[in-house]
Design goal:
The structure holds two protein chains of two kinds.
Chain A lengths: L7 H13 L7 E2 L10 E2 L2 E6 L1 H9 L2 H10 L5 E12 L5 E12 L7 E9 L21 H9 L6 E5 L17 H18 L8 E12 L1 H15 L6 E5 L5 H9 L7 H16 L6 H4 L2 H4 L15 H4 L9 E2 L9 H6 L11 H5 L2 E2 L6 H13 L19 H9 L12 E5 L9 H10 L8 E5 L11 H19 L8 H30 L2
Parallel strand pairs in A: 6-7, 6-8, 8-9, 9-12, 10-11, 12-13
Antiparallel strand pairs in A: 1-2, 3-4, 4-5, 5-7
Chain B lengths: L1 H16 L11 E11 L3 E2 L12 E4 L2 E11 L4 E8 L3 E7 L3 E2 L2 E2 L4 E8 L2 E7 L7 E19 L1 H7 L3 E4 L3 E13 L4 E10 L2 E8 L2 E8 L3 E10 L1
Antiparallel strand pairs in B: 1-4, 1-17, 2-16, 3-6, 4-5, 5-10, 6-9, 7-8, 9-11, 10-11, 11-13, 12-15, 13-14, 14-17, 15-16
The chains are: A alpha/beta, B mainly beta.
Chain lengths: 528, 230
């Protein structure tokens, strides 16, 4: 900046005027960084749409129009706020996090006054910049934000949804992925901050009714269940919860994956898991090469969530394999045919998932065979309950560090059972978070609870739709058929039946099931 | 315009009744009082930063303000001028879509700021002191201090909450061309047209988030004034 040297007097007067300028105030940063503190008040309203405008915006795209068919036309307008709040990392680090507060607006009775809160946990995001409060990305990277806005906020629910530590503005440097304690704590911190923010929003006439619903999808399904547990243990159980398609029985899930049931997306999930538990427990590996093949080990502990966008560039840049979680040259364990067979590439032709599992073996691969052998030795020596023909408890005391970490974060750990009405929703053909070792395990684990305490909903039952959610099940299966036929049509790319089936499976967890389970959750909540 | 006429009238009357200067008795100091008309030619980058829709521009409406200047005669043909207007309240308006979501945008008055904008100009005055009507040309620097920067309720609604605005001071070249008519030894009237480069990087602070826009105001000014030399 230049200086005005010609007239010191004028410059001095100008400086005085500038100093005395009564510039308008802005939001105030909080003095405290205690967890749960709203970091900036009032929060930023990112967008405001009345019901008609929001409907028009959604209708402008094919995916938005499809979503509206499920959610129904918006009853309310929605104000979208971006909240920043303080929370703690897996090792107790103080960190700022962020998220969305969506407030229903409008004259309809369901849109103002005391309204229930939906506390929502999003699914795994691979890109560090993800921000669920960003409506400008509703048709690109934030379709989940659009889903919860249309499904809940536009129907009169206040929505609170954190981005999670490690994303967006958080400088934590990693994401405490599948860390029950940290993630439930952060959910409650986001809720506390959002409740503090509500009175200072533009829609201050919309208030917290005190009725709280907790839900989330995939990773967020796990987080929702962990949050329900934490609230329950704290003596403030939610009115109801609806975890969806989450990896609840972590030990059982990973026992299946390590022994060859490689799930879709596993090469992206694995670095998130190991980094999270390494930061929390410090014993997953001494060096990344202990766990990862030399091809990918360098820098992998800082890779995820990634700043590479789109994240699929990770494969093109050679930073991660797209499919090959394991070495196609599977380990031979001397003296143990059982282990050798267990670690072989799955080949059961009767299992429809076999091609998906087998695709997870290749070279170059991500995880060393030594990890598989040591993990499996632990699993065989101290089996998970699901491996023992019906028993559902997690292993008693795993020794292998990764398995011990999974055990500690498994939702069966501590033998908690929900005291609030709980809906577990998922789809039985889920190739990413398997329905059986997760949702069905928890259902069996809680089978002794009073009738109706836990409701299990498979949106895709092989036996066909039935029960109170039959319409949702029928809608899901019809949409699958439509998509299958579309993919084979000229407009859908003219795929072969086999390829269309493969695409259908790839979309199953990430985009097909979520809106139907979210609708089921809303239906479940609305009856309480 | 009416305001200008009322302000300028007594001065003009004085001018018309004053004595004519002798060539060897030219005062070296002159003060001027008149009126500025400021015409903006704004080019503003669309607002950028996190959580911003594309295509949100802005524009500024023209203003009028009293003009004050001090001139020092350096030689028969060179004068240095320090000019300043009474800081006008300049208003910025939304330029883009009719609404952002459901919030009105295009044409809404979003931000206001006062400008203290002194200019220091070296002027070459054509002809010699015996001529009553003398054209001149000048060049120099213009410095702008923005203060009283306020976001309006409409601005707050668009930005998403209580908003403060940062507008760093601007220094840029300025040029002027004008005509001065010497009525008497002490009194004169003048008119000029000037242009300056005024650019700033505005920062909009709302809810802990900053958004940015580089703004080039491109002001051009018409000045009519009376001068008193001593």
């Amino acid at each position: 900046m230049y200086r005005f040297r010609g007239s010191l007097g004028v410059a001095f007067a100008a400086a005085l005027l500038a100093a005395c300028g009564s510039d308008s105030p802005t939001a105030t940063p909080a003095a405290s960084t205690a967890h749960g503190t709203l970091a900036v008040s009032p929060p930023l309203r990112v967008a405001s749409a009345d019901a008609a405008t929001f409907q028009a915006q959604l209708s402008a795209t094919a995916s938005g129009a499809q979503l509206l068919q499920l959610t129904g036309a918006p009853t309310c307008g929605v104000d979208f706020y971006y909240i920043k709040f303080w929370t703690t990392g897996a090792a107790g680090e103080t960190t700022e996090s962020s998220g969305a507060l969506m407030v229903p607006t409008g004259a309809a009775p369901a849109c103002s006054g005391p309204r229930p809160i939906v506390l929502y946990a999003h699914g795994t995001q691979f890109e560090q910049a993800f921000n669920i409060a960003d409506p400008t990305a509703f048709t690109t990277t934030n379709t989940e934000g659009a889903l919860i806005a249309a499904m809940f906020a536009a129907q009169g629910y206040i929505v609170v949804a954190p981005n999670y530590a490690g994303y967006d503005i958080s400088t934590l440097g990693y994401h405490p992925f599948l860390n029950a304690s940290q993630q439930s704590g952060e959910m409650i911190d986001a809720l506390t901050a959002a409740r503090a923010a509500l009175p200072s929003t533009f829609a201050a006439s919309t208030t917290d009714s005190g009725k709280l619903f907790v839900t989330g999808y995939s990773e967020g399904g796990f987080v929702a269940m962990a949050t329900e547990r934490a609230l329950d243990i704290a003596g403030t159980p939610p009115a109801a919860a609806a975890p969806m398609s989450g990896p609840y029985a972590l030990e059982a899930l990973f026992d299946a994956v390590i022994t060859g049931d490689v799930n879709i997306g596993s090469t992206l999930f694995t670095p998130l898991v190991t980094t999270s538990y390494q930061r929390a427990y410090g014993n997953i590996y001494s060096a990344t090469t202990d766990f990862y093949s030399a091809t990918y080990a360098t820098g992998i502990d800082k890779l995820m969530p990634t700043t590479v966008t789109p994240y699929t560039q990770l494969f093109e840049k050679g930073l991660l394999p797209e499919l090959a979680l394991f070495d196609s040259s599977t380990p031979v364990v001397p003296g143990s045919t059982q282990l050798t067979d267990l670690l072989a590439i799955p080949s059961n032709p009767a299992n429809p998932f076999t091609p998906v599992f087998a695709a997870g073996f290749g070279s170059p691969y991500l995880i060393n065979n030594s990890v598989r052998v040591n993990y499996t030795l632990d699993a065989v020596g101290d089996p998970d309950g699901t491996a023992l023909g019906g028993a559902t408890l997690a292993a008693h005391a795993p020794v292998y560090p990764l398995r011990l970490a999974l055990y500690k974060n498994d939702m069966r750990y501590g033998s908690w059972a929900p005291s609030s009405p709980t809906l577990l929703c998922g789809g039985e053909k889920d190739p990413t978070v398997f329905f059986s070792p997760d949702t069905l395990t928890m259902a069996a684990f809680w089978s002794g609870l009073p009738l109706g305490a836990v409701t299990v909903l498979d949106v895709d039952p092989a036996a066909g739709p039935s029960g109170p959610f039959a319409l949702i099940q029928a809608g899901f299966q019809a949409s699958q058929t439509q998509e299958y036929e579309f993919l084979q049509s000229a407009a859908g790319g003219g795929l072969s039946a086999a390829l269309a089936q493969q695409v259908l499976l790839q979309n199953y967890h990430g985009s097909s099931v979520p809106p139907f389970c979210a609708l089921a959750a809303r239906t479940f909540f609305s009856n309480l | 315009m009416t305001r200008f006429v009322l302000r300028a009238l007594p001065i003009v009357l004085l001018v018309l009744t004053g004595p004519i200067a002798r060539a060897d008795d030219i005062p070296n100091n002159t003060v001027r009082l008149g009126e500025y008309w400021v015409f903006y030619h704004v080019y503003a980058d669309d607002l950028s930063g996190p959580l911003v829709e594309p295509g949100l521009g802005s524009t500024v409406k023209n203003v009028q303000t009293p003009y004050l200047a001090y001139l020092r005669r350096l030689s028969p043909n060179f004068t240095i001028e320090l000019a300043v207007g009474i800081p006008p309240l300049t208003k910025t308006y939304g330029k883009g879509p009719a609404t952002v979501g459901s919030v009105p945008y295009n044409g809404e008055q979003l931000i206001s700021a006062r400008w203290l904008a002194p200019s220091l100009l070296l002027e070459y005055v054509f002809l010699d002191d015996s001529y009553k009507l003398r054209p001149y040309f000048g060049a120099g620097l213009n410095y702008v201090v923005f203060y009283d920067r306020n976001s309006s309720p409409a601005g707050n609604a668009v930005a998403g909450g209580p908003t403060s605005v940062s507008l760093p001071n601007s220094l840029g070249p300025a040029v002027t061309a004008g005509l001065n008519y010497q009525i008497s030894r002490n009194w004169s009237v003048m008119a000029s047209y000037s242009a300056a480069r005024v650019e700033t990087d505005s920062t909009i602070h709302t809810g802990g988030v900053n958004r940015y826009s580089h703004v080039s105001f491109g002001p051009q000014t018409l000045v009519v004034a009376a001068g008193f030399s001593f």
